[in-house]
Amino acid sequence: MKDIDMETWQDKKVKDALQPVTSAVSIRIKQLNVYIRDQHILKDIDLILPEKSIICIIGPSGCGKSTFLKALNRMHDETPEVKITGNIFVDGEDIYSNHVNVIDIRKKMGLLSQRPCPLPMSIFDNVAYGPRIHGLTRRKVLNQTVIQYLQYVGLWEEVRGRIRTPATRLSIGQQQRLCLARGLAVEPEFILGDEATSALDPISTKKIEELFLNLKEKYTIILVTHTLRQAKRIADHVVFMYMGKIIESGPTDEFFNNPRKQLTKDYLSGSFS
Amino acid sequence: MHYLRKIKDRSARHVMLGIAVFAVLFLLVIAISLFIKALPIMREKSIWVLLTSGSWRPFKGDFGFLPFILSTLHVSLLAILIALPLSLLTSIYLHTYASRNTRSFFQPFIDVLSGIPSVIYGVWGTLTIVPLIANKIAPNFVEFSSGYSVLAGGMVLAVMILPLLISILLEVFRSIPQEMTDASMQLGATKWQTVKKVVLRKSFPGILAAVVLSVSRAFGETIAVLMVCGNITEIPHSLFDACYPLPALIANNYGEMLSMPSYESALMLAAFLLFIIIVLFNALSRVILVQIEKRYSL
Amino acid sequence: MKNFEEQFFKTLMIVSASIIIGVLVFIIGTIVYKGLPALSWDMITKLPGGGFYLGKEGGVLNAIIGSLYIVGGSLIISIFLSIPVVMFINFYLPAGSAFGNITRFTFDILFGIPSIVYGAFGFALMVYLGIRASLLGGIITVAMLIMPIMMRSLDEVTRLLSRDLPDALLSLGATKYEMIKVILRQLMPGIVTAVLLALGRGIGDAATVLFTAGYTDNIPNALDQPAATLPLSIFFQLGSPVAEVQNRAYASAVILTAVILVLSFAARYFSSRFSKNKL
Description:
The complex is a heterotrimer.
Chain A: H1 2-16, E1 27-36, E2 39-49, E3 54-58, H2 65-72, E4 82-90, E5 93-94, H3 102-108, E6 109-112, H4 123-133, H5 139-152, H6 156-159, H7 172-185, E7 190-194, H8 202-215, E8 220-224, H9 228-234, E9 237-242, E10 245-251, H10 252-257, H11 262-268
Parallel strand pairs in A: 3-8, 3-9, 6-7, 7-8
Antiparallel strand pairs in A: 1-2, 1-4, 4-5, 9-10
Helix pairs in contact in A: 4-5, 4-7, 5-7
Chain B: H1 2-44, H2 47-52, E1 56-57, E2 62-63, H3 66-97, H4 100-115, H5 118-137, H6 150-174, H7 178-186, H8 191-202, H9 204-220, H10 223-228, H11 246-253, H12 261-297
Antiparallel strand pairs in B: 1-2
Helix pairs in contact in B: 1-12, 3-6, 3-9, 4-6, 5-6, 6-9, 7-8, 9-12, 11-12
Chain C: H1 2-35, H2 41-45, E1 48-49, E2 57-58, H3 61-92, H4 98-112, H5 115-129, H6 135-160, H7 164-171, H8 176-186, H9 188-204, H10 209-212, H11 230-238, H12 243-277
Antiparallel strand pairs in C: 1-2
């Protein structure tokens, strides 16, 4: 049983490695409320996230952007003082329903954090870590997978000769791309970025942004960003949050050119931030 | 595959919980077994008599702990009297006056001082402190002293508790918000005035905790004390008299007196007394220290 | 007047700091001065000779090896007990959980319990279990003594670890157990520091092994045989009225002090590496 599972998993992996996933994926959020202790952080969030696109979530700091992102891969499970009500449907299934395995959810959601956090092991092992814990053991396939994803984030040429050296020796921009490759190697359907470029220099930022633009062929990318310009550059859809509520959301052009709400206009014109 | 991983995670969790619970219960296990072992002697004599009688003649069935209790108190209090001013001044210096370099120069000395084993302090004490007392200090005050005395024990113990005192005091001082000392300095106070009026006052509970913790460390110190105190079962009347603290009593006699059940039980009572007093002292000072940490870490 | 007071106390402070440094130098100086002349190659490579327990010849190899056996055994026990406890309270329990706080508090208390009490308890336990004074008895008792030390310093470095690494691992779909395996790698320098600290404490303690490990002129080759230890060999030899034997105590003291100094500086080195590594 176990062997067969792995076999098909690997076949699928090799074949599909960089092919676009064809099944429809999207996230539908219904009446999501998040409380931390007695504070009401997210209020009545209703949102539909279109598949295979880049969605940028913007808003002043403290508006609940990061809390929202953490709700998507159930990282709030780790903190008992957080209470969540409402539903988040991913592929039509509520990720907060009881029979859902949290590991499956997190596997589906690749997270790219603010500061790159390489694991204390070699470059190779960093990328191989996810596939390994999820059951990929065959060496050849593993090697192939690692190389593939390193190539995919444009890191392969840069690290070719030192793939067995500690990942911490890479520059911070390289580390962030490594983390992206590591996340992709788990074969997620979504990529969650929590201000994923805020610690990087402009050139590394540009590289990551280009990657995102390529990746949306295959993945749905949800980015929390602090810079409006980044949203303008890469987003297909923009969601504007303020004080734990969604004020306005829509396609990027429309959002920036014809905001409907006064609050959005004020925010875009820089009246507050 | 998934199932297996979950099982592993679950069982790891349960094993870890088990070990943690065991570790916590361990404290109770020690307390209960020492108590049970001490019960026979407490059945024979009232605890009051045991604690207040000065007569210790195990072979005649007299077990009065007073000489040992008083010895322990004398030695420990003397140690804290010597060590507290030294460590207070030093840690104020390190915290307020010293440069970063001076501090990192000093740290290894404290580390080594706290790392030196008890028996080495004992060797040092017998080689230097004991003859110093016998030949130089005692002749000014009394007719004769062998040097193995309350004073020797207190001095050696003082050195031994210095590192503990200093490191806790430094932690306590560090927990005082910078704004508070800044405010005082801006009003034109000198550094010393700030220390006197703000730092020492604010950290009084912490200093108390450090003292209590160090005294309890001194109570339990064994080998070094045993080597320099003289170990004569009498209530000491001067600094130059020999004394016999509780831990030394246990160390010298336990393990060889198993043929006399009441003697063994009496020694276990000594261990139980030490245990209870030290646990109480420790608990008290830890509670104070945790409170301090909580108040300022927010 | 203000200035005078300031100067006066500042001087007093520098004097006390110097006294403390001076005392340490004095202690190590005394030990080295008395011990070095008696120290010889034989001391660390030969078993004692010329009389049971307190012979005048040979060395203290029995005590050196005995100490290493006892501390090695107790380190293994305490590592396997303290790492799970620290990982459990830091990663399985939510921050600020009551059980976590109780565990930390208990270990603070256990840390304060004097070694003579562990020694007495350990001996009573051995009598109850029917174990003679032996290597095994020494290992168990010293493990009790150093377990709180390990646990406290491990807990300290674990709490310094940023949340980034656990979060990164969990978001890759790792279980907590898998996450902990990687975190332990990151914590390695901290673990080494904790081990060195515990090692120093365990190797120098006499009161725990006084009743529980026994004493012998030979190197034990089974767990149920008695084992000599370095601190006890110093203690016993010093108690001898014979000058040569006393000198051997001083030489042994030099050996023990050297071991402690090396351990202390090694621990410092690793802990400084750790604070540089932490992200």
